[in-house]
Design a protein that fits this description.
This protein is an alpha/beta fold. About 45% of the residues lie in helices and about 10% in strands. It has eleven helices and six strands. A six-stranded mixed beta sheet has the order 3-2-1-4-5-6, with helices on both faces. Strand 5 and strand 6 form a beta hairpin. Helix 1 crosses helix 2 and helix 2 packs parallel to helix 3. The chain starts with 5 loop residues before the first strand and ends with a helix.
C-alpha cells in the first residue's frame, strides 16, 4: 500500500475565505498589501497554504475546485438556499484572479462549473478516484463533505489554516461524528438543518434529538415510518416538518454520480517556469514565500 496512488482534492472556496479572514487584520497594515497598496493578504496566505499542503502530501497529485459565479443548479432554484450568506468582500474579489494566476504559475489544475458547486465537483472526482483504488485526501472546512468518507477517502477539516486539521476517515469517523456513519451526514442535515446553508431542517428538533433518533432508527425516512413509537410532541414535529426535512436532506446531498472529464494522470503538476513564479511572488510583495521556494525547492 506504500506506493498507492494519492490525490489531494482542495475545496478552493473554503481555502479562499479562510485565507482572507485569517489574515484580515493585516489589511490595516502594510504587511497585508503589496508595495502599491493593493490587498494581497489572501493571496499570500492561500499560496503559503498550497505550498504547505504540497509538502505534507508530497507524493499526491493535486486539484482545486471553485464555485463559479452564476451557478445554476437544482439547489439555487430554492430562494432560501444560502440566502443568509454575505457577499464576497471587495478586497477578496480583487485577489481571487491573482490566486487563480498563482495556481497556473504552479501548474496546478483547477476547475469550476456553472452546473456544479465546488462540493459536487469534489464529490464526483473523489468517488471516481476511490473506485479506481486511488487514495483521496480532501482539504476543506465544510463538514458537508464528510458524507464522502469511505475506504479510500479521508476528509481533513481545516481548523487553523492547514497547520491544524482534523482527519476524518473510515477508522475514526464514528468516534468523531456523534457516533454516526458517513451515510448519516445528510440524514442529520435533513433533521437539524444547517445554518451555514440556511437549511431549516425539522423545526423543534435540534442536534441532540436528531442524533438520538438516528442512532435508533438510522434514517430520516425510517424515523418517520416509526413515528408512532415517539412521543406526541416529536410525532407532531415530524409530521409538520417532514417535507422540509426531506428537502434539506436532498439539498445537503453531494452529487457523486455525474462525470467530469478529469483523470488522475492529468492532475500531476509541474511548475512551468520557476523564474516566473518567483517574480510573480516578489511583484506582489510575497517575499517570505519566494525566499522559501528559492532556498528549499529550487
Amino acid at each position: 500500500m506504500k506506493n498507492k496512488k494519492q490525490v489531494l482534492l482542495i475545496d478552493g472556496n473554503s481555502l479562499l475565505y479562510k485565507s482572507f479572514y485569517a489574515s484580515y487584520f493585516l489589511l490595516e497594515k502594510q504587511s497585508g498589501r503589496d508595495d502599491r497598496g493593493n490587498p494581497i493578504n489572501a493571496l499570500r496566505t492561500f499560496s503559503t497554504m498550497i505550498i504547505n499542503l504540497i509538502e505534507i502530501f508530497e507524493n499526491a497529485n493535486i486539484f482545486v475546485a471553485f464555485d463559479k459565479k452564476g451557478l445554476e443548479t437544482y439547489r439555487t432554484s430554492f430562494s432560501f438556499y444560502k440566502d443568509n450568506r454575505k457577499k464576497m468582500p471587495e478586497e477578496l474579489i480583487i485577489q481571487k484572479p491573482l490566486i487563480v494566476e498563482f495556481l497556473n504559475m504552479m501548474g496546478i489544475k483547477h476547475f469550476s462549473s456553472i452546473k456544479h458547486e465546488a462540493d459536487d465537483i469534489i464529490g464526483i472526482l473523489a468517488k471516481k478516484f476511490s473506485k479506481q483504488n486511488i487514495k483521496v485526501e480532501i482539504i476543506t472546512s465544510d463538514k458537508d463533505l464528510l458524507q464522502l468518507v469511505d475506504d479510500n477517502i479521508s476528509i481533513h477539516i481545516s481548523k487553523t489554516g492547514v497547520s491544524e486539521m482534523i482527519n476524518y476517515n473510515k477508522f475514526n469517523f464514528n468516534e468523531l461524528y456523534y457516533g454516526l456513519n458517513p451515510n448519516q451526514v445528510i440524514e442529520l442535515k435533513g433533521i437539524m438543518g444547517d445554518s451555514s446553508d440556511n437549511l431549516k431542517g425539522i423545526k423543534g428538533i435540534g442536534e441532540k434529538g436528531a442524533v438520538s433518533l438516528l442512532k435508533k432508527y438510522g434514517t430520516l425516512e425510517n424515523i418517520y415510518e416509526n413515528k408512532n413509537e415517539l412521543s406526541n410532541s416529536l410525532k407532531s414535529k415530524l409530521e409538520e416538518g417532514i417535507e422540509m426535512g426531506r428537502l434539506c436532506k436532498k439539498i445537503a446531498t453531494i452529487m457523486t454520480n455525474d462525470d467530469i472529464n478529469i483523470n488522475f494522470e492529468s492532475l500531476s503538476f509541474e511548475i512551468p517556469s520557476k523564474d516566473e513564479l518567483i517574480n510573480f511572488l516578489r511583484y506582489y510583495s510575497i517575499h517570505s514565500l519566494a525566499n522559501k521556494l528559492e532556498r528549499k525547492w529550487f
